[in-house]
Design a protein that fits this description.
This protein has 194 residues and is of the alpha/beta class. 41% of the residues lie in helices and 19% in strands. It starts with a strand and ends with a helix.
Length: 194
């Protein structure tokens, strides 16, 4: 079986989401994937081609005003060229986001990513973790401390820079990276067998 190719297409306004993108990259690379970080607000033709040849694309953006950032929306609209040809059909997709508030309407951003993936005919890979930090014996240092299922969600204080991204949120993003790479390997073996 060939090595799965995972691309992380993300926007980061103040650096917090970039920390998460790097964590997703580390998790996917640790699981044996070839991984590419692609800043959607600086995307090149070569990077579009990388997305086209990827087995999985992980979408990432901060949550601003209840949805993905404007820069990510510009990228999403630009994918319509791929939509017309269904170029990304049957690729895997996943997502992650960050906001200053514990909830911050992050679910809406993850659902935006899910809808984008569905329009492209992609298969969504969820976080695959039970919620953490929801009992008296739990801790804010638990994986999935914010209790999201659709993807990895993080909370970063708005008066701290990227160094303030919570360690548990970084570990949760690493988990998502491993999960997408491992799922891509399973899908690849299935395609080879079929």
């Amino acid at each position: 079986m060939t090595t799965p190719v995972v691309s992380i297409a993300y926007h980061s306004g103040f650096g917090h989401t970039a920390v998460l993108a790097e964590a997703v990259r580390a998790g996917a690379a640790g699981a044996g994937a070839e991984v590419h970080l692609i800043k959607v607000d600086e995307i090149t033709d070569e990077q579009w081609e990388t997305l086209d040849r990827s087995d999985a694309i992980v979408f990432g953006s901060p949550t601003y005003m209840g949805t993905a950032s404007g820069a990510f929306h510009v990228f999403a609209e630009a994918t319509s060229k791929r939509w017309f040809g269904q170029d990304w059909k049957d690729k895997l997709a996943a997502g992650f986001t960050n906001s200053a508030s514990k909830s911050g309407d992050k679910l809406h951003t993850l659902q935006f990513f899910q809808t984008l993936a569905a329009q492209h005919g992609m298969h969504w890979v969820n976080l695959g973790l039970l919620p953490g930090w929801n009992a008296s014996t739990a801790s804010e240092n638990d994986l999935n401390r914010l209790g999201f299922f659709a993807g990895a969600a993080a909370q970063s204080n708005n008066d701290q820079g990227p160094e303030g991204v919570h360690k548990a949120d970084i570990a949760t993003a690493e988990h998502l990276g491993r999960r997408i790479a491992e799922t891509a390997q399973v899908f690849g073996r299935g395609r080879s067998a079929a």
